[in-house]
Amino acid sequence: MNTILSCATISVRRPLLAFILCSLLLPFSLAGSKSSNGKDDAVLSAMRAELERSKSHLKMENVDAPYYVEYRIFDADEYSAEAAFGALRSDVRTRVRFVRVVVRIGDYKQDSYFGQGEGTIDLMPVDDDLFALRHQLWLATDRAYKSAAESLTA
To answer: How far apart are CA 51 and CA 68, in angstroms?
Structure first.
């Protein structure tokens, strides 16, 4: 999980105040990030389960099975604060999660990774619900597979 602390909007006239505010907010911003070993991480578990399902069951009639499936999930957790004359004017926390799925069919000499076959990008649930994550991965994988099939035939 990427944790970004944006202090660029703090008044430049008071650099000491900006430094103090950023140093006070940094521990709170980093407290939300979990250190995981991968065994109890719902996102990684969903990715592994859907990758196994895709390897064994992803096949349409008259279309080759994929030889390459890629999942990339970008998880951003951003906090920004603005202060003036010692008072906090605004603070905003934004959390978003994206997935990019690439499915390649064909072989290493000629495959579907051109045009529509370059993958699909979609939003992911930000809560760690395993079933919701797997469902969204399944939908994105299905779209990427169909796009790859169209790209290879074109």
So the answer is: 10
